[in-house]
């Protein structure tokens, strides 16, 4: 087992000179480390910090000015109660001091005292709060998380202003310490889910957790599957809605996204926009997405299977059109389909990596030029171009980028099976996918919930939406403590003004 490396030495009875040597050694003699030694009231005071991580104005106003103007007793206890710093930690552990300095704190130590103070005057550079980029919306709040943990916590607190909202702090990583907050509503979230998250984070043995997407992969139930098991979102309102339904969120330091669990397969096809729109429109959009994903997976393999093995299912008028369009194509349907799918993936990846305006032009112009040239050169047929385009559009309707990538990936083995065994190959692939999804779990909960195990009352939170007056209970698949959302009251009927 990987052993955590921590320095348990304390600063008890250390001199300022010896402490300075300990800090320099512990921080690798870094040139940007600033250590100041002051003499006040006959005592030596050490201040250690990274100048680029602190606010110079706060340092002057909240630390240096009150310190130099003091006429009372100079001790860590007195400073703890009088310095105008919002967050002060008392510590005598060297490893805590080192981590505090790295995070933008100023360490203040008075020679002869058994403890020192970590003063939070951090000014960690981060981008401002902006609109969401990966989860674009037409309706609803568009503000997104950013890389500063304090901002993300504030955004979430602002939306879930419930005194029972709890944020539990943990540290993850052996070499690079990363703060992770488990956030949930105490009287709603299932304690078993909270304990499972807590245990997996505490048992995690890794050098570092750079981002929430990596953390989600490291605590998954099954690391071999293609399918994501936790929703990773940059929208605070999506996290707040999940918390109100009994789910749990993870806020990760230095990450602009939060992790939500447990998340079922259907969670990756939902958006907050479905909630903000009227219930019938939200249901229609979810239905469109599910149909689009099904067609995205099925269309190209069906084309390959029909042209290779099942000509009899094609109407004669359409068969003539297919025959004429493929008359000059030298490849079998499976090679033709794989070639076009590969070209589409190349265009998509190139468009995603190029600057926005250039990427959009590349995708549109490249698709038109290459598609037209491929048809004229006899590499493919017109009908397959249409099918491939519809399949690509269907995969792009998925709100989750990761799930969309999964859909595009699994098309390739299904196309190969369709070319080898026809319709039987497609059915084998679909049966394998269904069995695989049935075996998957997310935070110990069934991945296909509420379809398996079947919960009729929970379908209105996943596959479709219903009018608000019927949303009286929370989804039972999340095992909420408080299952009631609204009281079951008969809606009052008001008479028309002319009556």
From TrEMBL:
What cellular component GO annotations does this protein have? Answer: plasma membrane
Q: Which residues form a coiled coil?
A: none
For this UniProt record, the keywords arranged alphabetically read as follows:
Membrane, Transmembrane, Transmembrane helix
Q: What is its main location?
A: membrane
Which InterPro entries does UniProt cross-reference here? Spore_Ger, UPF0353/GerABKA_families
Q: Which GO terms describe its biological process?
A: spore germination
Q: Which Pfam families match?
A: GerA (PF03323)
Q: Quick check: keyword Transferase in the entry? A: no
* Membrane topology type: Multi-pass membrane protein
Domain of life here? Answer: Bacteria
Q: Where in the cell is it found?
A: Cell membrane; Membrane
Regions crossing the membrane: 287-309, 383-402, 414-438
The similarity comment for this entry is:
Belongs to the GerABKA family.
Protein known as: Spore gernimation protein
Q: What is the species listed in this Swiss-Prot or TrEMBL entry?
A: Bacillus coahuilensis p1.1.43
